[in-house]
Write a structure and sequence with these properties.
The chain is α+β, with helices and mostly antiparallel strands and 280 residues long. The protein has two domains: 33-82, no CATH class; 92-279, Glutaredoxin (3-Layer(aba) Sandwich), CATH 3.40.30. It is built from ten helices and seven strands. The strands form two sheets. A five-stranded mixed sheet has the order 2-1-5-6-7, with helices on both faces. Strands 3-4 form a two-stranded antiparallel ribbon. α4 links the parallel β1 (92-98) and β2 (124-130). α5 (147-162) packs across α8 (200-208). The longest helix is centred in the N-terminal third of the chain and has 36 residues, at 49-84. It comes from Cladosporium halotolerans. Belongs to the GILT family. It is found in: Secreted.
């Protein structure tokens, strides 16, 4: 009987159904283990010869990219400052002497000055000066085409005063000259100011500042400069303080090297001397 009971006993002890098996790791724990293994591998790899060479290459390429970016930003900044400086070493003096309501001035600006400036603006010190007379009557200035021309001259001088970049005020002056018969109508001034990003109110306030004496003084100064140089014809172009061309009566005269914009560009390039590092 006892032997039968022994034979009926199971070979393995029955497991307690209440015992819990070992819990499986969560996904977050598995990911953490993977990250630890990756970091350990990267540390070991970085200490190897291959890892050291890769680090050197990465540092070298990064340094080269940073150097190129700094160099490009320096070039952009230097070009910006050269464009906006009123005077810079080596630039060639370029000046146009005009009357705001003169058709010869319109042709001169359109055919020669503007196209040339598109190519050599960074190589010249450009200035617009005006032709007229000093009197002891009225405002003390007189213009060939009447008081409206004097006001047009003052508006263009005010544009140069508030917006000294030639690319801006020369464009405004060309816009006015294209409709010189309408100078100084409010509609024309507003149109040209808007076209070239100027404030009409600034221009208007400039012509009326100090009871108008501010703009009159600018015009008088310009007239005196022109007279001192002995220039009488609108439009007269000087390069390097020497007469380069005169537009008078619908014709080009006193030409030094041709009447085209290309000839003016060639003359500027011939006279231009790039600033040396010592000038910086």
């Amino acid at each position: 009987m006892a032997s039968d009971q022994v034979e009926k006993q199971p070979l393995l002890e029955a497991q307690n159904p209440t015992d819990e098996s070992t819990p499986e790791p969560t996904l977050a724990e598995l990911q953490q283990n993977v990250y630890k293994a990756q970091r350990a591998y990267m540390r070991a790899w970085s200490r190897s010869t291959s890892g050291k060479w890769h680090k050197r290459i990465i540092f070298g390429v990064t340094g080269l990219l940073v150097f190129c970016m700094v160099a490009m930003m320096s070039l952009i900044a230097s070009d910006f400052w050269l464009d906006d400086e009123p005077y810079s070493s080596g630039r060639v003096p370029l000046e146009a002497f005009i009357m705001s309501k003169c058709p010869d001035a319109r042709d001169c600006l359109h055919d020669m000055i503007l196209p040339a400036m598109q190519n050599v603006s960074h190589k010249v010190d450009f200035q617009l000066s005006y032709i007229g007379s000093i009197t002891h009557e009225d405002d003390g200035v007189a213009c060939k085409h009447g008081p409206s021309e004097c006001l047009g001259n003052m508006l263009e001088l005010c544009a140069a005063h508030h917006y000294p970049n030639p690319k801006i005020y020369l464009g405004f002056t060309m816009c006015m000259s294209n409709q010189y018969d309408d100078i100084p109508s409010k509609e024309l001034v507003e149109e040209c100011a808007l076209e070239h990003g100027m404030s009409f109110d600034k221009l208007h306030d400039c012509t009326t500042a100090e009871d108008g004496s501010f703009s009159v003084d600018m015009l008088r100064t310009s007239f005196n400069r022109t007279a001192a140089l002995g220039i009488e014809k609108s439009c007269t172009v000087t390069v390097g303080n020497e007469i380069f061309a005169v537009r008078d009566g619908g014709e080009w005269k006193d030409l030094r090297n041709g009447s085209s914009a290309a000839s003016l560009v060639d003359e500027v390039i011939r006279l231009y001397q790039p600033p040396s590092y010592a000038d910086w």
